[in-house]
Every structure is written in C-alpha cells, then in structure tokens.
Amino acid sequence: RVAAGAGDGADALIVSSGSNLQFLRSGSLTVAAGGTVGVNTAVARIASGASQEFGNASEGTTVGTTTITSGVGPGSVAEVVAPGSQNLRFGSLSLSAVGAGQNSIARVEAGTSQNLSSSNVSLSAGSNAGASALIKAATGQTFTGSGGVTLTGGTGITGSGNDASALIVNLAGAQSLNKNTGGTWILTTGADYGPAGIVNNGTTQDIIAGNITIQTGAGANNVNAPLTGDYVAGIVNLGSGAQTVRGSAIQINNANAPGSIGIYSANAQSLSAFGSLTVQTSNATGAARIALASGTQTVGASGVVTVQVTGGGGTAAIDAVSHATN
Questions:
Q1: What is the mean pLDDT of residues 163-184?
Q2: In angstroms, rounded to a whole number, what is the distance separating the alpha carbons of residues 223 and 103?
Q3: pLDDT, tens digit (0-9, with 9 covering 90-100), for 86-112
C-alpha cells in the first residue's frame, strides 16, 4: 500500500533513481494520493529512473487487484510512471479521480513503450477541473488479458486543461488492445467537459473486444479538447496506419452531446461486429458516427445493422470520404 497523508507534501513514494530495471512483486496494490480540499497537496507515486516491471510472464506472476486513486488536494496525483518502458501485469486495474481535487490525476504512463496485462480495466474521472484518469504510452502500447474496459468521463469546467477526462492514449508506434476472451467495453462521457476515449496518434490501432458501447452521460456534454474534430467519446485512430475494430455487439448512442461520438480513423478502417451493430442519435444537434477521413472503410455485422435518428435533428451515419464497403 502506497498511501499519501493529508499534510502538504505528505507524499508516499517508491522511487528508483538509477538506470536499472525496477521490479515489483506483490499481492493487491493500492496507490492513493491525499492532501486536503483546496489546500494541501500530497502525491502517491511508484516510479523508476529507467524502466519497470510489475509481475513477470515467465514466472506466471502478477500484481493482484490494483487501485490507483488521486487525492482530494489540488494536484494530488497518484501514478505509476517510468521514463522508459513499463511491463505491467495486474489481476485487475482501476484508476479513479472520483472525489479528487483540481488537476489531481490518476495515471499509468510510460516514456517509451508500455505492455499492460489485466482482467477488467476501469478509468473514472472526477468532478473537478483536470480530475482525470489516464493510461498513456509514448512509443507503442499493448493491452492483453480477459475482462472488460470501462472509461467514464467526469465533470470539468470550460478552459484549456480543465476537462475531466478518461483516456487511453498512445503517441507513436502501434496501439493494440486485444482482450478477445470477451468482457464488456463501455465508454461514457461525463456530464460536462468529460471526454472518454481510446486514442492512437502513432501508426496502426487494433481493438479486439467483447460487446462495445459508446454513449453519452446525462448533461451538457461540452468539451475543451475533443478526441478529434468534435468527438467527445469514441475509439479514434489519428495515426498513419489503418484501424481494425472487432467486437461482439457494437452500439453507438448519442443521447446528449452536441458534438460527435463513435469510431473514427484518419486512414483505412475495418470494423466487424459478431452480433448487432447500432449507430443512433436522439438529441437536437449531435452525431453518432462510424467514419474515416481517407482510404477504404469496411463495416460488417453478423446481426442486424441499425442506423437511426430516434429524436431531434442530429445525425446517425456510417460514412467515408474515400470509399465504403458495408
């Protein structure tokens, strides 16, 4: 347990400052920041000076149930970070900024590549400016293991850096989230200024999941920093390569956001649903989309495909600039 206190600077740290690999073997793990509301800052951190490893595949070991929770104090960050690579094996993983102070982030971040193995993965943003949950890699990222993925945006305020977001992000290289043993994937925006998304800025992105739901929470659903364009929630590939998304039933439902939600690629895209596929909107101006900017888009489903507007003047669409095969 790595738990910060309430006092200003009452930090809890496991830190390796050298160039060697840092190993962690444990049962359940808690990383919890602290502080006090609006006053004291206290962080909780596990950090390596180079790279680090939690559990080991050849040993068959994992760190057990893991919770990373940012604190109530401003800037009270809870994090597992390294300037190099991270190979992290968890029983399950939860990152939460619920109840956190301003700019108090719960994050797992690697300065190069990151491999993460876990059953269920959950990211929950809070109700404060910048109270976000984040998993991020700089040069490539993979997710494996069973179970689902849940991303829930929070409630931020207007202004740069003030979104309360729940994001999985890769900056360069390929991103692959392969949890093909099933589980439910749910991406939900927060009430306002709370985006939720899986974003790749590198090369290719591959998603293999169980049921996938992309939806909006009740509220105004504005955003300061969209995932791309006006997207407030979704699976987004902005990389130089293609995107592949495979799931069981896939549902995209925009009931509240004035912007867009959905699945988007800057280049070629292939989407397969081994069940039903639904793209719908029910609000005045928002959109639900499966779309790409260039290249070929292939969309298929073994069940019923539904593209519908159930109320309001919004848009529901499967569209492509270049060419689409449905």
A1: 92
A2: 16
A3: 999 999 999 999 999 999 999 999 999
Q: What is the CA radius of gyration of the chain?
A: 19
Name the token pair of 117.
Answer: 């193995």
Bridge partners, 265 (sequence order): 237, 292
CA distances from 37 to 8, 31, 77, 123, 128 (A): 11, 19, 13, 22, 11
Predicted TM-score (pTM) of the model is 0.97
Q: Where do runs of H (alpha helix) occur along 22-165?
A: none
> What is the dihedral angle through the alpha carbons of 207, 243, 291, 310, rounded to the nearest 10 degrees?
-10
Instruction: Please say whether the beta carbons of 132 and 97 come within 8 A.
Output: yes
Longest dimension (CA), the chain: 59
Structure tokens at 209: 């999941």
Are 170 and 141 in contact, with CB atoms under 8 Å apart?
yes
- Cβ pair 131, 164 in contact under 8 A: yes
Q: Which of 304, 301, 277 is nearest to 289 (CA)?
A: 277
Rounded CA separation 107/219 (Å): 25
Q: 């991406």: which residue's tokens?
A: 187
Tokens encoding 279: 């793209």
Work out the burial of residue 325: count CB atoms within 10 Å of its CB; fewer than 13 is exposed, 13-18 middle, 19 or more buried.
Answer: exposed
Number of neighbouring beta carbons within 10 Å of residue 220: 12
Burial (CB count within 10 angstroms: exposed 0-12, middle 13-18, buried 19+), residue 107? buried
Cα 57 to Cα 88: distance, rounded to the nearest angstrom: 10
Alpha-carbon gap, residue 75 to 79, rounded angstroms = 12
Residue 25 C-beta-side C-alpha neighbours within 13 Å: 5
